[in-house]
Specification:
Elements: E1 2-5, E2 14-18, H1 26-49, H2 55-76, E3 81-85, E4 90-94, E5 102-104, E6 110-114, E7 124-129, E8 132-136, H3 142-161
Antiparallel strand pairs: 1-2, 2-3, 3-4, 4-5, 6-7, 7-8
């Protein structure tokens, strides 16, 4: 799922690094594509030897499509979120830059874990304050999303209990 920096939840400021699952390294991706290409070349060569002259061209086209799609999925799997919480504010930043950072005051923001709309759909973890909301951890599984919700609740409670945070935003 990710990690909390610092490791203890009792100190502020805190940063949560939330990352999607990525079990394949860059070298592993290239190794897989090389092995896949060799297998495709072997079967395309066998098919061409048996009379299908289009098989090698199809194999090259197929390998290019597979390599393009897997590379794109691998690059997108690096796009996580950074949730930074201090006594002055909570900020959610997407690592891929797809959206501008969202800032909330820690006294007013609430973490809400909503169930899925239909049976079997994933829940949603929302950070909400004054009619604004942002979804975090949508790429996590249910258990990891619940753990993240508990961590956020603990961090927000700590920020609210800290004497330097007040309801009007004045320190």
């Amino acid at each position: 799922m990710g990690e909390t920096l610092p490791a203890t939840l009792s100190t502020l400021p805190a940063r949560l690094l939330v990352l999607p699952h990525r079990s394949l390294s860059r070298a592993g991706l290239w190794l897989f594509l090389a092995l896949q290409g060799m297998a495709m070349a072997a079967f395309a060569g066998l098919a061409a030897w048996r009379g299908n002259v289009f098989a090698p061209w199809f194999a090259v086209l197929d390998w290019c499509v597979v390599a393009c799609v897997l590379s794109r999925v691998w690059r997108r799997s690096a796009a996580g979120e950074v949730i930074a919480l201090g006594v002055s504010g909570l900020e959610v930043t997407r690592m891929d830059g797809s959206a501008p950072p969202v800032r909330f005051h820690p006294y007013w923001v609430r973490a809400e874990l909503r169930p899925g709309r239909h049976f079997g759909w994933a829940s949603r973890l929302l950070l909400r304050s004054h009619g604004r909301e942002v979804e975090v951890g949508k790429f996590l599984n249910e258990a990891e999303r619940a753990v993240l919700a508990r961590q956020l609740d603990e961090l927000l409670a700590q920020a609210r209990l800290d004497g330097s945070v007040s309801a009007d935003g004045q320190g």
